[in-house]
Specification:
heterodimer, A: 107 residues, 9 strands, 0% helix, B: 122 residues, four-stranded antiparallel β-sheet
Chain lengths: 107, 122
């Protein structure tokens, strides 16, 4: 089955830049979406269609995609950005798949 | 305001079925698809499928084919997800979610239900 691979964890100091990668064969043809999930809460959409930011999401969140890799960048990470981040996309048949998830620590 | 409100927690025996509801309000129910996503304790997110509330059309993840059924009641603005032949591996938080695309479908879920915990245990 199709997989989207993410690093298990990323650590960054407050104010620094965090980059989370998502690797998958179909990403060269399919959009990537990114979700933030804090403990005990439903996920929140932070990036859609590779690089679009929903209303209400801070500008420090940005997305890009090149070839088979999508990247979520948090520029000037804040303590409140800690949480789990999941990429999301579709496989060649149109089924949706979540990435393996990345735990972001800001300290 | 726009919201999705799910039914309460369930405890089921192995082999049983569970039916979770997701009631929409604050928007035109038939204009937006609804997806279902689950998350086992301490694990990642898993997509289960979607339903088009306008047509009733569905698409299920291969893993759940034959075991999941998604339906809707337009008079109640409610969608349902029924999962049968439950095992302990189905113990999870189940979420409904709405894409932000009016009249279309995508993976951009901007509205989520609060989640329904389903516990499968004898």
């Amino acid at each position: 089955s199709y997989e989207l691979t993410q690093p298990p964890s990323v650590s960054v100091s407050p104010g620094q830049t965090a980059r989370i990668t998502c690797s998958g064969d179909a990403l060269s043809k399919k959009y990537a979406y990114w979700y933030q999930q804090k403990s005990g809460q439903a996920p929140v959409l932070v990036i859609y269609e590779d690089n679009k930011r929903p209303s209400g999401i801070p500008e420090r969140f940005s997305g890009s995609s090149s070839g088979t890799m999508a990247t979520l960048t948090i520029s000037g990470a804040q303590v409140e950005d800690e949480g789990d981040y999941y990429c999301y996309s579709t496989d060649s048949s149109g089924d949706y798949v979540f990435g393996t998830g990345t735990k972001v620590t800001v300290l | 305001q726009v919201q999705l409100v799910q039914s309460g927690a369930e405890v089921k025996n192995p082999g049983a079925s569970v039916k979770v509801s997701c009631k929409a309000s604050g928007y035109t129910f038939t204009a937006y698809y609804i997806h279902w996503v689950r998350q086992a304790p301490g694990q990642g997110l898993e997509w289960m499928g979607w339903i088009n509330p306008n047509s009733g059309g569905t698409d299920y993840a291969q893993k759940f084919q034959g075991r999941v059924t998604m339906t809707r009641d337009t008079s109640l603005s409610t969608v349902y997800m029924e999962l049968s032949r439950l095992t302990s591996d189905d113990t999870a938080m189940y979420y409904c979610a709405r894409p932000l695309n009016y009249g279309g479908n995508s993976g951009a879920f901007d509205i989520w239900g609060q989640g329904t915990m389903v516990t499968v245990s004898s």
